[in-house]
Amino acid sequence: MSKLPNKRALPSREAGQFKELLNLYESRQLKKGLKTADLILKKFPEHGETLCMKGLVLVHMGRREEGIDLVKKGVRLDLTSHIVWHVFGLIQKGEKNYEEALKSYTQALRFEKENINILRDAASLQTQLRLYDALVETRHTLLRLRPNLRQHWVALSIAHYLNGNTKDAKAVLESYLSTLKNVPPHDVEQSETLLFYITLLEELGEHSEALSVLDSNSRSRAIVDRTAVSETRARLLTKLGTPEAEEAWHTLLERNSDCYDYYAGYLSNKGHTLTEPSPAALQIVSDLAAEFPRAKAPKRLSLNLSTGDEFKARAEAYIVTALVKGIPSLFSDLKSLYADPAKKDAIEEIVERLREHYKKETAAPSGSEEPTTYLWTLYLLAQHYSSLGKHQKALELLEEALEHTPTLPELHTFKGRVLKRAGDYLGAARCVNDARVLDGQDRFLNTKTGKYLLRAGMVKEASNVLGLFTKKDASSPGADLEDMQSMLYLLEEARAHEKNGHPNLALKKYMAVKKIYDEIEDDQYDFHGYCLRKFTLNAYVRMLKWEDNIRGQASYVTAALAASKIFVAAHDNPNLVKSLSSTSEELTDAAKKAKKKAKKAAVKAVEEKKNAPTAGATHDDKGIEPQSNKDDDPDGLKLLGAPDVLDQAAKVLAPLTTVAAGSVGVWCAVYDVAVRRGKVLQAVSALGKAKGVDAESPEVHVRIVDLKLREAKLAEAAKENVKEIFVEGVKKLYPGDVGVETFNSQYLQRGEGRAESVLACARVLVLLGAPQEEVDNAVFELLAGERGLGVKDAVKALEFLRSVKSAREEDFRAACDARFELSTAFKSKEEQAVIREGVMTRGPNGGKDEAVTP
């Protein structure tokens, strides 16, 4: 055994105390541990390992800064000790700094190559960082050290699988399975291992072998998950093309006759799909519908597979059954059929005919139909016409339905949706609030009302409504919803703040969404060890694949793009933060009172927490992770005014380049940030990828012109080896023999008058420094003739005119107000203020809504 360095060697008494210190830390007896560390340091103040352990104990006791300083001092005093590096790695891991933590663990393993605890922690960090090559090596070392633990065999197999070496993963499991003897029956861990082994065989294309292993182990009850056995067996038999496949899928249908996946498997075995109309597939589904008369799935699938008169007959029977039962979600069930125009027209014809029939039956004294059937028919028909953009007709049907039954919340909520689609966000919020008043205990209606109020820009009113169902001891409803990771609330409030001209507050909410995704990614760390201990192998692998693509979800993409846009705006306008600071200081009396009340609540909560007696006070363990600090930037002005806004934008966008590479908006946002950071090659590459996704995108057109106008300046600033590549990249994006004005005109002609294309060309005119009159005329072209100008495009056009300070902004607003009669988006500020006052003071019966008082 090698001799310990002088600084590390302790006399036997102190060495025993150090071992006791380690045990006290493991059992979280922190106060005793601290006293023990002090006893050692009293005699040996420069003992690095003890200093690190004392620092670790202090971190757990809440004295974080003091503890970290001691750990760093301990590392400096004993750079060759695995203990100090292990402790330092634990501290860094607690701070979610996984890269640095892994470096510390790697350093520790240089001096203690076979330490099981360090190797195990290093493997978890390597999985978290997706360093699968290193993970395989670490898992192999663990297996070599402890070959008697089956967890290590399975962990090495999974490491190979994650690294893309499925054959090696299979070989490891085969070696492990061949050594097993006397496995107890119904062993769940063995069952999960066998299912994972079968998955490997299936992915390698060894279907016969996989089926053989599955059958032998299911008969012996070694695999206890019977549903997994049946599903895997049916899938393998289908891939092998054996006659038994039909029976296997049929067995699954007998077990669950409403599972669409089972119908897909049954039909695919016979060469059909669930979506392509086919007489043969229709006959198969019809036979299954007769066999399972209580199942809804085959009846619904028959609508996908039928056409013409056959479709009409089946659709009418399906719709009538749902209307009689009073199923509110019927339209959601049918709307996927609208992709086929013939089926859409057929549904309209059927429901209109049923409407006339039920109307007569309801009016007749001896009518045989229930009055509610006519009500749900009106509801379905209103949804149908609204989806086609016929909002006026949908509203007429809803008014008729409300006269019939004014107390049905679904009618009020859908009326709100119709008004929202027509551009009347204030009216939509009023209608949804009318529905909420009908049932004040309904959390769904409360949430829906809050959402619609936020879309109308009524942030305070939305907070009051949502606060009816949040914790009463929270500093604010918004804080509680953020703690509950309600991304719907965060995104809607962020949009509301943007709409109200508060990009700083919007940015805070968008970054809160990013923080949620960071936490979701961090939360997977504990599962790297847990899932291997519990042998939930297939679920674990699926979780890792899901985590790899989690930032491709719509909520993160939306938040990241919006946040990067605000960051870019802050970079382009250095006075933005200053102007917002002066605005935020001009608070109303009510706002000042609300802010003061929230501050008092926060102080009270801190004091109560401080004074509250804690269970297990002898341990007093506050964990190794840093405590959440008080938000010193509630208005988001520091965040918006940070000197590294472009770097933050680039960091937010970075994951999207892999998980959302098919989005034009992502690449345009990457270009916006890169070109301002002087990353010319990244900017050209991003714009090239955006053009590859959609060459005729208006956003791409604007940025190609922007790049062309910046070309000379960017090329001059670039290094020689970069300059040539940059210029060649620009040539691929922009035709060199065409002037910018001509290029813009050609795009406008190709756009065929689409609103987005017209606005893009107007934005290019601004970049070119064209006279204001020319820019205005380009935008006003949207109002000419019978162009298909929608409310959303008209709002964008009005915002554009406002941003360029057009003198004709009011003319455009008035013209849109006359054109879109249902919309309140184009009313004057005075008119909108009057309408806003009526949103929360009307109930379905015209009474004042008193339930929103917080």
TrEMBL record:
- Residue ranges that the Swiss-Prot or TrEMBL entry lists as coiled coil: 95-122
- Positions of the UniProt region annotated as Disordered: 602-638
UniProt entry keywords in alphabetical sequence: Coiled coil, Receptor, Repeat, TPR repeat
Which Gene3D superfamilies does this entry report, sorted A to Z? 1.25.40.1010, 1.25.40.1040
- Source organism superkingdom: Eukaryota
Q: Where is the composition biased (Basic and acidic residues)?
A: 618-631
Keyword Coiled coil tagged: yes
For this protein, the record's SMART domains field holds: TPR
Q: Name one GO cellular component term.
A: NatA complex
Instruction: Identify the stretches annotated as TPR repeats.
Output: 82-115, 375-408
The record's PROSITE patterns line, in alphabetical order, gives: TPR
Instruction: Report whether Lyase shows up as a keyword of the record.
Output: no
Q: What is this protein called?
A: NMDA receptor-regulated protein 1a
Native species of this protein? Ephemerocybe angulata
